[in-house]
Amino acid sequence: MYSEERKLKIIDFITNYSRASVQDLSDYLKVSQSTIRRDLKELQKTNQIQRTHGGAVSLQAVNFEPKIMDKEVEYVQEKKAIAKKAVEFIENGDTILLDAGTTTLPILEDLQQFSQLTIVTNSILIMRNFKPSAGIEILFLGGSLRNETLASVGPFAEHNLEMIRVDKAFVAINGVHLTEGLTTPNLIEARIKKLMIQNAQQVILLSDSSKMGKVSFAKVADLQEIDKFIVDDRLHPSFKKSMEDLGVEVISVQTRP
User: Fold this and answer.
1) Helices (H) and strands (E) in the chain, counts
2) Which end of the chain has fewer CB within 10 Å, C or N?
3) What is the pTM of this model?
4) What's the pLDDT at 9?
């Protein structure tokens, strides 16, 4: 079976069943798991499926939300490069808001250079990984904890967020679409992200290019509500130009040699 024929069968299988494991596809097509992983990687690059830990899901499943442990092992180098660039926009004395997400988490690694900083977050992972430092204060929004993202959400978190204003919000997202805007699979988490955007003087979106063109279930914001967008260098030039035409400053960081 030729490679392209095999990929078409993979897409059909995932579309019919919404998701599939590497083992499922290996058994179905009678090829090795390494071949399936390679095919899935290539299909994701062309935005035909969404990789998960151990398999893939159909892009038609707009309410699908990968677990936090699945996202931690995806696009690791891209996320680190994006986070390092994000730190360049932080100034001493800033109050910053760090959204829950595996793209915002690496920002913590470079914050020790600041002598005065206030961090607000709804991420348990950020709270766990924060290293106490003189002059750097961290505030947790509290609320109900979502197991899928380890983010605090709900009325209590929203109430605390509504009481504050921050200099800069660093926001993570599941889907970035030119007409549908920013989307995420969960309505409650969409509400938190929306409030973060509304209550920040400057909004900086952090996302790897695999999220481009994707639409999830719950709308968060229009692209025009974003000030800066930091993304890896795989972003298509036409997508970049379209975002810049909407008034968004797009900053591509190099992740390829």
Assistant:
1) 9, 15
2) C
3) 0.76
4) 87
